[in-house]
């Protein structure tokens, strides 16, 4: 790392200690110790030691990780009962947060630039190169944790990185060096997408730019981000789902985002019923249309790297993460590797019941219900996922930050809510959509109204 930051030798453990002090100094409410904000910060911070213990293969690592994840899951289930959401300003103003976030981003990306990317990340980029050259990889024995959608993203990034490498290099660039450069650019762009998504949601959906910047800075400061900073199979799906939330007023676009995420990893498939019920009958058709269209296009991209129908069939089948559905302990890694497969079956059954429950309850969902329930469903997959279940914190971390910082979002209705309410009232003679009382605006740090009459334009864009 001396080539980027001379003398910088901070490891993951030291980073965890330093970031803990910064997070407490900036976000902890010292004047109100017993508050929901402090509880959420404690749950976020207790995850980091568990992830470090997993790296050191300590016996208490996975029990600690599963306990912390279980507490977060219960917090998400009970989120709608926390009706009092006072505005908690950070202990640092906006300019200071921007400076702190910029410095933290520089240190994190220095790790990405100087250290070699993980093998799953490199293999995903190689699939992108094969897509560009239309090379058949159906006989490849190399396993990859992400589906064909990752190759679609990596392909254009590979073209750009190849042009940059050839123009700035003093010697011929080897294919492996170009693959590593592409992987690093892909990781950096994915983290930038999450940062931009958090700021956008804070400004447009929460009506407070300061909150958006605070969420982005906390995302960068948390040790779990630094521990898995180079894992594109965690960062890119999280970015896609985050932007699906940001653009929830456009059901077809959100459906396409989640469809693309389904083309990378398995877990977004459990979000589809929840989002469909959130949008209602008309919006669900648009959402499912976008989801099916994008997912079909992702699978059809395999035709470019298939020589015949047999090759296409092999690659389509291999695109499914069969390891996540396996009940063979030999295929497991982590907590479930020491237990019989029979113990995992009731966990999956309970999870499916939870998926059905959160899909239909509550019946009238707002944006705050969509965010909390989506996060809970992603967190729930950690308990039965066989390949090191529990460590995939970045899958749900951006959404969890939205739950932690969000104000009341009763004004954020699904698209077409007003028209559906009028239709029901006209047919039944009564309004079945019971609106909750309007939330009074709360003064911000500057004395201005934080929720900014909830910006009526958000319901029209």
From TrEMBL:
Signal peptide: none annotated. The chain crosses the membrane at residues 12-30, 62-82, 94-115, 181-201, 213-246, 252-275, 287-305, 343-363, 391-409. It comes from the Bacteria. Residues 413-461 are annotated as: Disordered. Keywords: Membrane, Transmembrane, Transmembrane helix. This is DUF2029 domain-containing protein. It comes from Polystyrenella longa.
